[in-house]
Amino acid sequence: MAKPTYYLTTPLYYTSGRLHIGHAYTSVIADAIARYKRLRGYDVCLLTGTDEHGQKIQRTAEAAGKQPQEFVDGLVATIKDLWQLLDVEYDVFIRTTAEHHERAVQGIFEKLYKQGDIYKSEYQGWYCEPCESFFTERQLKDGKCPDCGREVQWLKEESYFFKLSKYQDRLLKYIEEHPEFIQPVSRRNEMINTFIKPGLEDLCVSRTTFDWGVKVPFDPKHVVYVWLDALSNYITALGYGSDDDSAFRRYWPADVHLMGKEIVRFHAIIWPIILMALDLPLPKQVFGHGWLLFDDDKMSKSKGNVVDPVPLVARYGSDALRYYLLREIAFGADGNFTPELFITRLNADLANDLGNLLSRTVAMIEKYFAGQIPAPGEATDFDASLLELAYTTKDQVEQAMDNLRPQVALEAIWQLVKRANKYIDETMPWVLAKEEAKRGQLATVLYNLADVLRLTAILLQPFMPRTPQRIWEQLGLVASQEAQWEQAVPGRLAAGQQVKKGEAIFPRLDLKAELAAWEEEGQKEEAKPLTPPLAEEVDIDYFSKVDLRVVNVLAAERVPKADRLLKLQVALGPERRTIVAGIAQHYEPEELVGKQVVIVANLKPAKIRGIESQGMVLAASDEKGLAVLTPQRPVEAGSKAK
Ligand code: ME8
Fold first, then answer.
1. For an engineered disulfide with 361, which of 160, 212, 449, 512 has Cβ 3.0 to 4.6 Å away?
2. What's the gap in Å between 484 CA and the centre of ligand 1?
3. Cα(first)–Cα(last) distance of the chain, in Å?
4. C-alpha to C-alpha distance for 207 and 155, rounded to whole angstroms
């Protein structure tokens, strides 16, 4: 009989910068689910890839002095390396710059245009460049992007539009009839109430102000909107729209599209409508997971609080990081990452609970049975409750994983691990060992412990791909014969195996030393923010209204009771002016006297701390602090800068 199929996708990762552990979270969950399904006998297709088009990427490439293709090629290589490092075993990796994808996207665009679902008009509205999203006035939050809180820009251009509005009722009906379609429920309610019920507006699906994208085939000055381009990957990756669409016919519709909560909107509204318009079945589920927060703040490049997974894996191993990500974050809710939480979790769960259980068990088998796993003998009073839990753990893990809850699955496994440690305390093998008459009981205890470790290792495979092998090795078992999921029930261990004590699988970490190493290893350096995004484009006339002048600083003093402010007396030609500048934390007053600085001379005067400031000093800032702008050679005071 053919295996049932399971098609699971991660979103496509933007290729505008290196990925952090928040990104790794999406892929690690997807990989754990895929591994679980493979163990359960499914023919799994795990899709991941990269989102490589759009204005943001074009600009970032320009800023790095590279052609966009060369720039994204470099990043794609680092992303693939990261998945390898984290043991993320994908089946298909799609790049939106792949020719077959681009051709299929053009085909989709053309089909929708021909059938009248895409039409040409003019776009006017608000655009958030970092999010590559359009908003109506009503959708803005305090005049800013409702998703990321950054500035939006007013755009007006000839564009193609996609008739979302036409499909609104059909989508709402579908969502209402399929409660499992958008999960968790909070996301589903948000989609219905915040987005669909207030009314969907037609979506602008082409741009003309940049060219790094898929060209509209019949009107090549337009490029296809990045989200239409990127979302299509879920079918183009399977060969939809190409000569060979056998994978598409095999795996579509997807079982789960997995993603962070901020992009559920695209997957639960725009994507299903595209599919409806293409007359294709909808994915079975769109699941929005929560965010990984760093000190309660969303990890994101623009905030400069990102944590790079690469040094973490180098120091603690990929299984440790995977375990943390899968365990710490209740699926659907947000979770926290701090170095303290991370180390504490590794010590408690991996070093103490799991690591100790293994090393104690192996050491006792060596000590009392010359290293040979004994066949069980007489029962003890404590066997039944351990074995009962061991029987049900597999079911609990299955139930959790079938509902996409890796955290719950790991909790169930750790309940068993903790129970087994408690079993050692209850049965006290070192006491049993003292009486020859209790040798049968001692054998039972050590057999049960080894057996529980054996089956725990089977259950751990989806989450920690490397650790099970190390557990089996110490128990003298051969991985290739142990991995089968169905064997994860007690009593299947063949006695007589020779155990082999090895190194601690998770050595206990010294919290203080690790935190110090964390600082030293420059996590903070990796966390440097990228160049801030550019402001809205202005023309030369607009710019020339700003009058910049070089002035001589005649005197400078601190403003009382204001840590940040200096009061400067400057000469603009013969004119004297007072300027208040927020640079006191970076300059001593005397450092500035005699210097030339550049000011905005026609800025409307403003009262700051009771002093009228007649202009503004220009300064640049980076992570080292602030530097005032000064001409490269002394010029006449009052000279214009432009
Ligand atoms: O959104 N915590 O790509 P992306 C948890 N290209 N998850 C996080 C996170 C955090 N701090 N930061 C990012 C895109 N992610 C689009 C998708 S799909 C057709 C196009 C997750 O690189 C994020 O939620 O910004 C998403 O699931 C994934 O990383 C990629 O995000």
1. 449
2. 33
3. 75
4. 10
State yes or no: pLDDT of 155 exceeds 70: yes
User: Whose Cα sits closest to atom 21 in ligand 1?
Assistant: 23
CA of 194 relative to ligand 1 center, distance in Å: 21
Going by C-alpha positions, the residue among 633, 632, 638, 598 that lies closest to residue 581 is 598
- What pLDDT does 608 receive? 86
d(CA 507, CA 355): 8
17 Cβ inside 6 Å of ligand 1: no
Cα 396 from Cα 409, distance rounded (Å): 7
Centroid of ligand 1 to alpha carbon of 14 (angstroms): 8
Ligand 1 atom having least distance to the Cα of 14:
22
**CB of residue 28 inside a 6 A radius of ligand 1:** no
CB proximity list for 303: less than 8 A, separation 6 or greater: 297, 529
* Residues ≥6 apart with Cβ < 8 Å to 103: 241, 242
How buried is residue 436: exposed, middle or buried, by Cβ count under 10 Å (0-12/13-18/19+)?
exposed
Q: What is the pLDDT of residues 63-113, one digit of tens each?
A: 889 999 999 999 999 999 999 999 999 999 999 999 999 999 999 999 999
Residue corresponding to tokens 């958008």: 182
More confident residue, 1 or 421: 421
Judge contact between 149 and 169, C-beta under 8 A.
no
Ligand 1 atom nearest to CA at 298: 11
Give per-residue pLDDT as tens, 236-276: 999 999 999 999 999 999 999 999 999 999 999 999 999 99
CA distance 570 to 595: 10
Measure the CA–CA gap between 31 and 239, rounded to whole angstroms. Answer: 22
- Residue identified by tokens 């209204």 is 545
**Closest C-alpha to 423, from 374, 380, 371, 458:** 380
Ligand 1 within 6 A of CB of 292: yes
Predicted confidence (pLDDT) at residue 529 exceeds the cutoff of 70:
no
Measured by CA distance, the residue closest to atom 15 of ligand 1 is 23
Band of pLDDT at residue 525, cut at 50, 70 and 90? very low
**Ligand 1 pocket, residue 299 CB under 6 Å:** yes
The sign of the torsion formed by the CA atoms of 12, 14, 18, 19 equals: negative
Return the closest-CA partner of residue 602 out of 521, 547, 556: 547
Is the CB of 12 inside a 6 Å radius of any atom of ligand 1?
Answer: yes
Read out DSSP for 498-518? BP---S-SSPPP-HHHHHHHH
The C-alpha atoms of residue 274 and residue 276 are separated, in whole angstroms, by: 5
Nearest CA owner, ligand 1 atom 31:
13
Entry pTM: 0.81
In one letter, which amino acid is 605? P
Could you give the CA distance from residue 223 to residue 206 in angstroms, rounded to a whole number? Answer: 5
> Which alpha helices (H) appear in 378-427, and where do they start and end?
383-402, 406-427
Distance 19 CA to ligand 1 centre (A): 9
527 pLDDT exceeds 60?
Answer: no
**Among 153-167, 208-222, 295-309, the least confident range:** 295-309
